[in-house]
Every structure is written in structure tokens, then in C-alpha cells.
Amino acid sequence: MLKQSLQQKLLQKLSPQQIQLMKLLQVPTASLEQRIKEELESNPALEEGLDDTYKEDDSSPEDAFGTNDDDINVNEHQDQHREDFNLDIYIDDDETPAYKLAVNNQSPDEERKEVPYSTGMSFQELLLDQLHTQDLDDREEKIAEYLIGNIDEDGYLRRDVVSITDDLAFTLGVQTTDEEVEKLLKVIQSFDPPVVGARSLKECLLLQLKRKNQRLEPVMRAIRILEECMEEVSRKHYDKIQRRLGYSELQLKEAINEVLKLNPKPGNSQSDQAKSTQHIIPDFLLSNIDGELELVLNSKNAPDLRISKTYNEMLEQYAKNKKLAIKDQKEAIQFVKQKIDSAKWFIDAIKQRQQTLLFTMHAIVEFQKEYFQEGDDTKLKPMILKDIADRVALDISTISRVANSKYIQTSFGTFLIKSFFSESLTNDEGEEVSTREVKKILEDSVENEDKRNPVTDDALAKVLKEKGYNIARRTVAKYREQLGIPVARLRKEL
Length: 494
Fold this sequence. Notes:
Number of domains: 3
Number of strands: 9
Radius of gyration: 34 Å
Order of helices and strands: HHEHEHHHHHHHHHEEEHHHHHHEEEEHHH
Largest sheet: 4 strands, mixed
Strand order of the largest sheet: 4-3-6-7
Shape: extended
Distance between the termini: 85 Å
């Protein structure tokens, strides 16, 4: 049975402008320049730079358009078979001063600096360049090139020789043997960087040791240790190695020192040169001037933006000729108005982004004022996203976007904003302290420990308890892992 009913619903939807603002808000300063370049390329109505001809009393060229119905009727009479078109749909009659169509993100005395990037040969190119100097025929060179193509950036050949031999036959039509592939692999392992093309960490380290003077006793012992006790070396079970091989503590220490001098990733030395260095560009600059904190937004990567004067003049031209050309130039007017509106929204979103970032960061600095004045981690208060959201009357998701992937430069270092947020713990005196303060104590304890007998998680829990923090061992282990500190066994040194 069919029924008709009338219902009233209340829905909340984000406008395109709000979505654009949210996306810009989470973009760090380092990526904002690229985002603005993309917008400049896609929107011809948006330009970079400021136009001195704009004045505050200038009005938008859109004001030149009226709403004279007689003019529209003339065109309708000239072409009754074409659909009705009202210019007011595409051109608003609101007065927008031209100075509001530009945004200045840079002070006049701020110097713009470009960071030069250098490029070199890639890791694969370096190996191929050395290959071409070898006395190999075309067939052997083809096999060697395939081997080089299977070497990863760390310098390892992760595939076994049998699989490579089969691939050469099926994919390249090259018939070869495992022995020939092994022979060519030995040639590649003689290239620079040394021992590139090793198939395991053990083989990589052994090849490097065998290039040294094997008559030296520490080198001989190191080779024997890797050949017979590789698993114990990786787990740092030095006592087991001593009992198994009968070495004294001094002999073992000398041999292990030879192993520690080796490069476990021979490809990294070259691949790192080819990769561009990523520099942290702070989004905020905080200065401490006689105890007073001064916060500014780093806008070095945000160019000045404005509405294209050409597009404004195009609208003026359409306004003058609208009685004759309004029908024929409908699509052109649509395009121009759409691009100008899009440029307005983008400029406005950039402005709102800056205001929101500064407003939120001011609240964070005020909340952690004692910490930012001294830079002492023990002064850091417990702070969650909701604490700042309540202060600035913004949503928690907005605060998260501001804190994510953004940095602040202070007199005592540059930090990720998200690192200032932490949960709270209660000490023996009933005071709430930040978990970051506890992590700082853990870091100091590990840094000052005896490396021959590292502090265990149980011992770290006792240290914290003595300082008034009653924390379980599993919680200590969680904080240690968050700090990237390995377990005590892996921190042991001879």
C-alpha cells in the first residue's frame, strides 16, 4: 500500500569552501607552497603578487551589471528558441572591494630565499656505469644488468640464484646456469660500494671482513664468530659466544669491535646522496623577549595572492556589451565568474587558515607558558586536544588538524606541535603530571646506565617509583617502545 507523508529533517552539510579550508588547515607550511602553485596552475583568475592599483574604495567590476529586465527581454525577443538566461545567476550584485580580493602573506622587508638542490647518480646508475667497464660479452652484460636491477636500495640481492636463472630464461630468453649467475654476481660484489649484492646480512659482513687483512687476529676471530655464532651476535648473547668459542672477554670485545665497524647496508651510502634532504620548515616562530613570549606565523612559503586584473576587466567588458552578447557569451561569462569565485574562496581560505593557526597556537602557548619560557620538560602540563578546543571554542578535529605535521621553532629547539599533547599521571602527592615528564626520566636513566649491564624494565619501574611515580612494568615497557629504546639485552655493550 502506497502512502504519502511530509517529513521535516535537519541536516548539516559542509560547503565546498569549508571543505577547502579543512584541507588547507592540515597542510604544513612546507607543503603549502606546492598547494598554492597547484591552485595557480588550475585557476587562471588567481595570480601571485600584489597590485598597487587596488584601492580600498574600488568596487568589484561585478557592480557594473544591473538587473534591467528590459535588456534581457530584448535578447529573448531576438532569439525565442534559445533557453532563457539571466546574468544575475552567474554574477552577484554584492559590492566587494578589490583590496579584499588579495592576500599579503609576506612582510615588505622579508627576504625570499630559495634552497638549492643537488642531484647525482642513482645507486643503480652507479653500478651500471661500473659494469660497462668490465670485460664482458653482450650476453654476460645482459645477465649482469638483470642482477643489478634486482638489487634493492640497501645493496642486497633478496632473490635466490635459481629464481633469477628461471626468470632470465622465461622473461628475457637468456639461457644460463646457476654457476654463471654466481660468477657474474661475484663481479658485481667487487664494485663500489663494497660487497653490494650480498644475499644476507651474514654474507654482507663476511665479505667485508674478508677484504681486510685476515692475518690480524681480531679479524680472524670476527670471521669465525659470524660463521659459527651469527644468531648469538644478532641477539647480543656474548656470554654464549664466549663459552662456545672459548674466547676471553678482551678477545671477544676486539672481534666485536671489528664487526661494529662494518656497514650492514652497503647501498645506503650511495642512495642517500641521490635522495633529496628533507628540511623541517617551522610553521610558527616563538621568541622569548625578556620573559614575554612572542608568537608569529611563518609565511615564507605562502606567496601574495590576488584576483587577476585581466579577469576583472573581462567581466567589465561583458557588462558593457551584455545587451548584444549575453546569449552568445553565456559560457564565457559562466567560466569567468566561476574562476573568480573559486579564486575568492581560495584567498579567503588562506586568510582563515592563518587566523585559525595563530588563534590555536596562541592558546597552546598560553596553556604551556611555563614550559615555553624555560624549555624544561618537567614544566610541561598534561594537555589533550579537548583542553585547547574548549579554550578556542573550536572542534577537536580542527585542533587535531592544526597540531598534525606542524612544527614550532623556539629558542631551545624545533618541535612537532603534537608532541606537546600528553596524557596525565598522578604522582604520590596527588599532583597531575604529564607522561612526557615520565618519559624524560626514562630517557635520562637509559642514557646514564652502565652499558655492560643495562637497566631492565623492572629496574626502570623502581627508579620511577622512587621519584614518586607508581607505574607498572608493562607501562614502562610501553613508554620505552614509544621512545624507540630497545630492550636491555639489545642495549648491552662490551
